[in-house]
């Protein structure tokens, strides 16, 4: 049961992931959460760091899509600024929109990485679809109300995982 919640890697930030890293893992595609993965949950606009990261990945042939549980309005604002495709209201960890994202990007699970800051949504959902999962530290220490319960459960799961396996935060892949 705990295996479903176990990320393949744990990174301090997604921005150290390069196209070279992605290709060296045999991957071609990144699905990424938005809130507290790339951008603080209470900030509205894409940062230069996000725009540069997406630009570099796409210039090197890596397919990228934002997969967020947040509202259409919130996700569209960032996606429009970055010109990155997205699926909002994704209802992660449910499988429907993971599968839809893979279809839209013409990607297979074995060539896809899911990046996110929540074990209960991003990592569980990605693992259920047999994607490589990368758990990142949240951009901001606080969360919106809807995320607080998930963070409580996450702390319990992470403690149990740490007893069974070595878990270390890394700076890059």
From TrEMBL:
One of its GO terms (molecular function) is phosphatidylglycerophosphatase activity. NCBIfam families: HAD-SF-IA-v1, HAD-SF-IIIA, YqeG_hyp_ppase. It comes from Listeria fleischmannii. GO terms for cellular component: cytoplasm. This is YqeG family HAD IIIA-type phosphatase. PANTHER family: 4-NITROPHENYLPHOSPHATASE-RELATED (PTHR19288), PHOSPHATIDYLGLYCEROPHOSPHATASE GEP4, MITOCHONDRIAL (PTHR19288:SF25). Pfam families: Hydrolase. InterPro entries: HAD-like_sf, HAD-SF_hydro_IA, HAD-SF_hydro_IIIA, HAD_sf, PGPP1/Gep4.
């Amino acid at each position: 049961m705990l295996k479903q919640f176990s990320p393949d890697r744990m990174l301090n930030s997604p921005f150290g992931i390069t196209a070279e890293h992605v290709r060296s893992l045999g991957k071609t595609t990144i699905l990424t959460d938005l809130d507290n993965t790339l951008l603080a949950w209470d900030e509205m606009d894409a940062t230069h760091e996000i725009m540069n990261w997406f630009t570099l990945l796409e210039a090197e042939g890596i397919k990228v899509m934002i997969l967020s549980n947040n509202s259409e309005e919130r996700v569209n604002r960032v996606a429009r600024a970055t010109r990155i495709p997205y699926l909002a209201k994704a209802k992660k960890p449910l499988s429907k929109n993971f599968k839809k994202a893979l279809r839209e990007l013409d990607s297979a699970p074995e060539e896809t990485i899911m990046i996110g800051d929540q074990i209960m949504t991003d990592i569980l959902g990605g693992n259920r679809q047999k994607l490589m999962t990368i758990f990142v530290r949240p951009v901001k220490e606080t969360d919106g109300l809807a995320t607080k319960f998930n963070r409580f459960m996450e702390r319990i799961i992470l403690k149990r995982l740490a007893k069974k396996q070595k878990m270390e935060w890394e700076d890059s892949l």
